[in-house]
Specification:
Strands 8-7-6-9-10-11-12 form a 7-stranded parallel beta sheet, with helices on both faces. A 5-stranded parallel beta sheet has the order 2-1-3-4-5. It contains 12 helices and 12 strands. It has helices at residues 12-21, 34-37, 55-60, 79-85, 97-113, 115-123, 129-132, 150-159, 184-190, 210-215, 233-242, 281-299; strands at residues 4-8, 25-29, 45-48, 66-69, 88-90, 142-146, 165-169, 180-181, 193-196, 221-224, 247-250, 270-272.
Amino acid sequence: MAQKVIIPKEFAHYLAEPLRNYGYEVVEVEDQYADTLLQHKDADGMVLNATPLDNETIDQMTNLKVIARFGVGYDNVDLQHCKERGIYVTNTPGGNEVAVAECAVTDILILSKNLYTVSKKMHEGDDSFAFHHPSHDIKGKTIGIVGYGNIGQQVAKMLSGFGVKTLIWNRSPRTSEYGEFVEWDELFKRSDFVSLHLPAVKGTIGSVNKETFKMMKDSAFIVNFARGAVINEADLIEALKNGDIAGAGLDVFEKEPLPMDSELRSLKNVFMTPHNSGFSVESFTKISDMSSSEVNLVLKGEKPEHCVNGL
């Protein structure tokens, strides 16, 4: 009997074929909440989307040997618990780095050019708005990149053709031809745009907060394509309402999907997308191949290439 692998239905177009080609029985699920997963608790492997996976559910899936994240972040699964259970947790580093970096740069341009509001006004029949609200060039501006992993590096490289000054902060020292490494406070004080690319881990969760926004220029914008938990959302809303910063471009939020009653939805100086920056055909294809390969390696009894929980 073929080993069973659970996959999220929204990615089945990309995932199902490579896993079936490896010889596995593929189970497509509408969602990955406990009630749904436990209908297939005999599964040997799982490709996990961004849904939180609790330890109680994991413990009831006694055959489970591998949880392959469809993406880079893995803050929705308890790594230590999986390690204790002997379950590999893997991710797909670099799988969506171009897609996310392109979206981060796009948000910087949208905010500097006020394109969202201009387009919205034009749709409403107001062609004069743009003439009375001139935009800004990013050439000559200072852009801070917080977190210099694969995505942060791509952002710096893409911005290098715009004539900007790039400042970089990273938790561990690195070198780059695309920017100057500076301390945390200096980056936030000097930057006209701050682009966040940090994982949500101890030491980074809530690290961008009221004190951080007070350091920033009131003309500065912040862009978050990392994780919502990196920013204290209540402090961000306060800063946006008070004019401590000029605006924000957000693809991630503390709670996802973003609640309909969130104040962020009503703020005119916020450009939002629903955590879809990595959603390109190219990135989905690459991530599917990588996550399928990780599942296959583990279920064949081999070590995966991108284990993140120390097994």
